[in-house]
Amino acid sequence: MIRFLLIALAVVLALPSALPLAAQDKLPPAPYAYRQLADPAQEAKAHALMQTLRCLQCQGQSITDSDAPIAGDMRHQVRVRIEAGVEPEAIRAQLIESYGDYVSYAPVVNALTWPLFAIPVLLVLVIGVVLRRRLTTRSA
Amino acid sequence: MNDPVPSVPPKAPRWALWLPLVLFGGFVVLVLFGLLRPAEREVRSKMIGKPMPEFSLQPAVADRPGFARADMATGQPRLLNIFASWCIPCAVEAPQLLALKQAGVQIDGVAIRDQREDVEAFLARHGNPFARIGADNVSAIQFAIGSSGVPESFVIDGKGVIRYQHIGEIRPEHVPVILEKMKEAGR
């Protein structure tokens, strides 16, 4: 029985290596995909930017969180450009030019999104006016 | 109770009673709409209508040259195919790329995160429709042209302007569309 179980275990362990790895490249990750920049200040800048960039493959994750190859390549791009002295917002702007706002998690105010920012302000104003009216009529 | 107080605000109109229900109903409709409509998962390039950015790629295989931005603006429209030997849909679209080549389309390929012997084996097995094949081991060209995966194909006109993006494998039914877009780009 034990021998049978051991054989079964060996077969199960051998299986993954026997199956072809589908849709997986064999190249090692890009140099800066998993390596930090030497300068801590630059790395901090890069990290802050990478946390607000969307992984194109795992779209609910930032590129910092994702292990998808394309996310690693994007981290490499970000770090290389930060190292070359490019400002984080310029890198973000370039990616938005390629992919649109969707690639960035940082909120932007534009023709489509301004109500999101305006409505809370408007609500607070309305509440203020209503409260004021109520309180003044009560005391009168 | 009987003596009316003049400072009491007037009663809200009757229809206002239904307002919360109507708002709630509207919210439910909105949620159902979002739930039942299949979400768009593709990230489309925003580079359509813009010129190809600067790039330069080393050859990915021995018998085809690499290429650069200048090679894309030759006066004739070209198809830029982003592929990889490790990508299964890329093998699915191979016959369609060969058909496009037969129809006279000039196709340049970019092998993403690939190794020379793997690309050569892939082309030996599935055919080689490419005039040039560049190697990109860090997906840099994808970030420059707004491509978010493999395979993707871009129609580039004779001036080097990106005119059309096809996301995913080219199936037989897509071939006429691509030919039409190539023709439009050639005008």
Description:
The complex is a heterodimer of chains A (140) and B (187). Chain A is built from five helices and no strands. Chain A has 140 residues and is an all-alpha fold. Chain A folds into two domains: 28-108, Cytochrome C biogenesis protein (Helicase, Ruva Protein, domain 3), CATH 1.10.8; 109-140. The termini of chain A are far apart. Chain B is an alpha/beta fold and 187 residues long. Chain B has a single domain (56-186), classed as Glutaredoxin, CATH 3.40.30. Chain B is built from five helices and seven strands. In chain B, strand 4 (107-112), helix 3 (116-126) and strand 5 (132-136) form a beta-alpha-beta unit. Chain B is elongated. Chain B starts with 18 loop residues before the first helix and ends with a helix. The chains are: A mainly alpha (140), B alpha/beta (187). Chains A and B meet through helix 3 and helix 4 of A and helix 4 of B.
Order of helices and strands of chain A: HHHHH
Under the CATH scheme, which architecture of chain B would be assigned?
3-Layer(aba) Sandwich
What is the domain total for the residues of chain B?
A: 1
Q: Shape of chain B from CA axes?
A: elongated
- Mean pLDDT across residues of chain A: 87
- Briefly, what CATH class of the largest domain in chain A? Mainly Alpha
Cα radius of gyration of chain B in angstroms:
27 Å
Summarize the helix and strand pattern of chain B as letters. HEEEHEHEHEEH
Number of strand elements of chain A: 0
- Which secondary-structure class do the elements of chain B indicate? alpha/beta
CATH architecture of the largest domain in chain A: Orthogonal Bundle
Distance between the termini of chain A: 92 Å
Radius of gyration of chain A, whole Å = 26 Å
> Given the structure, what is the number of helices of chain A?
5
Low-confidence stretches of chain B: none
Q: How would you classify the helix and strand content of chain A by structural class? A: mainly alpha
Seen as an oligomer or otherwise, the chain set is: heterodimer
Tell me roughly what share of residues is in helical segments of chain B: 25-40%
What is the count of DSSP helices of chain B, taking H or I runs of 4+ residues? Answer: 5
Number of strands of chain B: 7
